[in-house]
Amino acid sequence: MAALDGYTVVDLSSGIAGGYCTKLLADGGATVVKVESPQGDPLRSWSASGVEIAPGSDGALFSFLACSKHSVVVDPRKGDDLNLLRSLVASADAVVWSSGSAVVDLAEFAPAALADEHPHLTVTSITPFGLDGPWAAKAATEFTVQAWSGGVIGLGRGAQDRAPLFVAGQIGEYLAGAYAAAATMSVSNGLVDLSMLETEILCLTYYSVSFADALARPFRDRRRLTIPGVATAADGLVALGCGTAQQWFDLCAMVGHDEWIDETSELSITEQANIHAEEIYEWVRENRVEDILELSSAFRIPNAPVGNGATVTSFDQFAERGTFVTNPRDGFTQPGPPYRTSPSLVRPPQPAPTLGEHTETYRRNGIPGYQAEGLIARNSISATSRFDGLRVLDMTSFWAGPSCTHVLAMLGAEVIHVESTARPDGTRLIAGVPVTESQWWERSPIFSGLNTNKKSVTLDIRSPRGVELLRELVKTCDVVVENYTPRVLDQIGLDFDDVQQLRPDAIMMRMPGFGLDGPWRDKPAFAYVIEDASGITWLTGHPDHNPVEPYSVGDPNAGIHGLNALLLALRHRQRTGEGVRIEAAMVDAALNVAAEQVVEYSAYGNLLQRDGNRGPTAAPQNLYRTSELDEFGRPDDWVAIAVATDEQWAALVAALDHPVWADDELATVAGRRRRHDHIDEHLSRWCAARTGDEIVETLWPAGVPVAKVMQPHRVGDLPQLVHRGFYEAVDHPVNPAARHSTLPVRISTGPQRFHQSAAPLLGQHNREVLGDLGLSESEIADLEEQGIIGTAPAMAIRTTKTG
Question: What is the pTM of this model?
């Protein structure tokens, strides 16, 4: 039985975000009734490569996203159709809503109206900026939202001699859909108001506002290409990365330059790699892809082939694991679910519906088995009952795992974050705080941003006593989440079978990079190699250069997909009392949000290509330099403009006072695509004479999607985010108080404040948690003496003893 059997969702959305949200719910077993106007969801006629979809047929992406759903056509001009929709909504558990169809334009089907009229419903709204606030009604595309989020400049993407680069592939739509699905399952009733802007801040920037507040400097002050990143080998492209100092040292040794290793250097890894970029690239050019991958794996250096729609399905790891499946209706190739569970909580995909295929069935029968007065009792578990009292053992580090468990902590779960003094969470160590400063390991705003509301326990699981205590702790926890490399838990004997013996109803989620089996099982996995292997990287960059790694999406995307899997498992456990094993491989989540590349290639033979800051959804779409210098004194200040419709183009032309160059040929999207260079030339000249504020103040009131390309540490001051309270001030015992991002949703029945306590100091809760296990004060002191627990990293202790 799938986890969401008996749960019914009325899908009033159109486009990718809502489509992906309800796909995840349908995969989990929900009955998803997709309500469409007589014209159908615009995705039915969509192809990113420009394939013309014949009338009555559906585009491949729609067929992928609509698997296992039902289609009901509602004509808002017909009373009987509106009554049908009213009855569906009244009998459902949840509604997913976005703008874009004639049905949702009716006032009675607006999100707040639905939530007021039907108190039993969870109504999830997906909009660019949220349902209220000064920007609520502003024009936007995913491209301009990325610019506002700080995600375009966020992690230094792109060479300094060109414009910065957005992350292509409509990535914000998929991320918003994944968050919307998790939010829908987390709430029993009420209005869930999701903002795509806030979603992209969480997933495309790295806690930059918190960083600047706490340390009085930006996370990064300039763009640099990641070295090596994606590089040209003798026979193709290969991706290599260095996420830690040790990996940089190993790379130096691998390419034959041990003399570059300088453990005392004050330069960052990125800065050191840029100094030696040419020599590194030369070494890569002299070797074959296969040899580089094998050698770098031996050195434990993160590596991957660079996948795209044509190649990724043939990679050994995915072929051996059966990662890709056949679309049940149209026969093209698509990725399987983004997580695997035992017992299975997802159902095999069923064919996507034709337009209106189920209209008459629902007109005759409604939603079977539903009585309105019993809905509240049968509805999803409330946020309070689901998470209050839930105990989570969080054996994760860096970004992917902690971002998943952090949502649970913000929604009321007790989350115990396990570290060790020998290997603290890596985000404690990457803030660039000198080790000469007192408690330098406690000063990372990145760790702080990911771990509020949690408890910290240190355990050295290299010792038998540490493993013994870990096992005792497992017995007390409902959920165990880990993202070690697979061999770690195998070595200490704590896989799912072991956990079940300790706690039969425990849910255990493992979050490996590439999976628990297959030839890539033990590959080191950081966000960027996940992006490389899945195809996310392929679409980002300029067409005349190698692809550029987003360097951000792989981790938080894995985290939110893992959360979706956990929510399915919690529902299953509540229903059956059984524990669940979850394998939430980072790359499987990435392949799902990059699915369009494989879908387009296998359905039409078209390989999607990167195109700088242009994209398939708008023309013109690009970044244009303003007249200003950026805050660091460089000519690197930009605005984003994206014209998605002919009406928006007419509005742009009017705002520019009908310039001669905007001739009639440009009135259609086809004409604008043909002459995109011509438009860019004139818009570049117009923007170069104006400040970013002047450009936005001219175009946005006219209805043109436009945005300033924000420095990520400045987004906390955006009026929309201030209005919605997306950032909350959090005190800290070592750092100054800082603004911390929350969740990208406002929940009418949920918490009014998400951050209840600061991120924990290392080992802060050792005595509390171990005392609850029955250890005496003397036993705990003995553990400290042996180094099995502690409150400072081992390297800090060694420095103190030798200093």
Answer: 0.96
φ, ψ of residue 42 to 5 degrees: the values are -55, -25
**448 contact partners, CB below 8 Å, separation of at least 6:** 207, 210, 214, 730, 732, 735, 738, 740, 758, 759
- Is 489 found in the same domain as 353? no
pLDDT (tens digit, 9 = 90+) per residue, 677-687? 999 999 999 99
Interhelix angle 142-149/171-186, rounded to 10 degrees, is 80
CA atoms of 589 and 450, how far apart (whole Å):
20
Strands (E), 322-399: 324-326, 333-335, 340-342, 391-395
| Host H or E run for residue 563 | helix 554-576
Query: Number of structural domains, the chain?
Result: 3
Taking residue 628's Cβ as centre, other Cβ atoms within 10 Å add up to: 15
Specify if 518 maps to a domain. Answer: no
Angle at alpha carbon of residue 41, lines to 40 and 45, rounded to 5°: 90
Q: How many residues are present in the chain?
A: 803
DSSP state for residue 52 in the 8-state scheme: P
CA distances (Å), 593 to each of 154, 169, 397, 483, 530, in order? 20, 8, 23, 20, 12
Q: What DSSP designation does 689 have? A: T
The domain in which residue 662 lies consists of 618-716
Place of tokens 């013996």: 501
Predicted confidence (pLDDT) per residue in 238-280, tens digit: 999 987 888 999 999 999 999 999 988 888 888 889 899 999 9
